[in-house]
Amino acid sequence: MPGADAREVGTEIGQERVIDEAKVTLEWAYADEEFVVISYSVKDLQDDRRNAGHRVQLDPIFVGKDDVEAGRGPDRRATLTDESGRELGMIDGTFEVAGPGDGPEVLRMSKSNSAVFEVPEDLEPGRNHRFHLEIPLGEMPTFSSMEEGEQGVRIEPRPPIGPFIFDFELPVQPAPTIEMNEKVENNGVEMTLERVVNSPARPQAVICIEPPDDVHENLHPLVEPYPADRKPIEPLPLGHGCWSAPLYDRTEGRSSLTVTSLVVEPDENMSGPEMVQPELLPGPWKFDFEVPER
Questions:
Q1: If you ran DSSP here, which 8-state letter would residue 214 be given?
Q2: Where do the CATH 2.60.40.1630 domains begin and end in the chain?
Q3: Average per-residue pLDDT in the chain?
Q4: Which of 204, 194, 228, 222 is closest to 37 using CA atoms?
């Protein structure tokens, strides 16, 4: 995870569930006013799992918040709910899978995964909250080579394994929001640092982009190079030209964020000669700011 090591500020869980020769372990979790982060592992206990003669691996069935709201994705999917029964929307995650040519030994190894969820606005910090997590597992074909992967294979539809159910409590930590409203203009594009969310595990900067014209409406920011010791994460769209960009250090005292360039995304409604090809608008747009210490 970006920012602080979320495991250091999170809560160790260590709950294991085994169903149909598959094991899911909820390793640890973290919650604040903005995000819930869960870390879990999946291990296949079957020696050589196959479907229609093809070797398969176990795949946790998570569906992003936008797809859920649009009615896309399978009915059987992972869910995280709070103590009042409200479902939290997944906005990000990492998934570890076996690659082409990997044999049964690699397929049986424990695979580390994580998921990040938005929290309801009224989730009260400073006390423990109960959460309920369900994770079903599907089967995903593996390939002996890249060429086989490009051709694809057909497997039989099977009901998911599970769900694997976990009930746990987490302290909800405060994540102060600091209003900034700093503006920088470059290459004809004005960008505003609206606010900084000082999450201990996942600090974020909310930036908003004012497009220079109708042709350059869909602008995707690229932030400065990722630290070598951190897993990269792309800025997340918030709508109306605003993005949530990761900050890779705890935002206490002087901090900065640099947007190196903007990718102009093609308009989905255009086609043929009028379609705008992807292009790069160089920056930088650099923001220097200060966040009060906790």
A1: S
A2: 6-173, 177-291
A3: 83
A4: 204
Closest residue by Cα to residue 242 from 284, 181, 186: 181
CATH number of 177-291: 2.60.40.1630
The pLDDT score that the predictor gives to residue 294 is 62
Name the helix (H) or strand (E) containing 8: helix 6-9
Select from 2.40.50.140, 3.40.50.1100, 3.40.190.150, 2.60.40.1630 the CATH code of 6-173: 2.60.40.1630
Rounded mean pLDDT of 64-74? Answer: 77
- pLDDT band for position 146 (50/70/90)? low
Q: How far apart are CA 80 and CA 87, in angstroms?
A: 6
Work out the average pLDDT over 62-77.
79
Q: Tell me which H or E stretch contains 149.
A: helix 146-151
**pTM for this predicted structure:** 0.79
